[in-house]
Automatic annotation (TrEMBL):
Full protein name: GntR family transcriptional regulator
GO MF term list: DNA binding; DNA-binding transcription factor activity
Superkingdom classification of source: Bacteria
InterPro entries: Tscrpt_reg_HTH_GntR, WH-like_DNA-bd_sf, WH_DNA-bd_sf
Organism this protein belongs to: Paucibacter sediminis
Domain HTH gntR-type span(s) in chain numbering: 8-76
Gene3D superfamilies according to UniProt: 6.10.250.1220, Winged helix-like DNA-binding domain superfamily/Winged helix DNA-binding domain
């Protein structure tokens, strides 16, 4: 079961989660997304909230609505997401992470990039 936090509206959290799935290639570009009802049932939220999340993805140019057929992943959506996520990481997250590494006295040689 999905747990939502109070840091952002639920529709935005769902849109972010769906965008992360798109970034991972699920569903692939050109393929249909699950229906509003299906997503509402899966995440146990109101269909209007799901519709708002999907509209956020449309507004960001990641999916397109095909009247009477459903929502489809647009060609180039993954690349658009990659560029956006990379930019956000480098501008917002990396400076904070770098500062924390410096505070902790960690260097690149302390980090094990190849293993999880």
């Amino acid at each position: 079961m999905q747990s939502w936090n109070d840091n952002a509206p639920i529709y935005q959290q769902l849109a972010d989660q769906l965008a992360a799935q798109l970034l991972d290639g699920t569903p692939p570009e050109g393929e249909v997304l699950p229906s509003v009802r299906s997503l509402a049932s899966r995440y146990l939220i109101n269909p209007l909230t799901v519709s708002r999340a999907l509209q956020a993805l449309v507004d960001n140019g990641l999916v397109e609505s095909r009247r009477g057929v459903g929502m489809y992943v647009r060609q180039g959506a993954r690349e658009r997401l990659l560029q956006s996520e990379r930019q956000q990481f480098l501008q917002k997250e990396w400076p904070q992470l770098r500062a924390k590494l410096q505070r902790l006295g960690l260097s690149a040689s302390d980090l094990n990039w190849g293993q999880q």
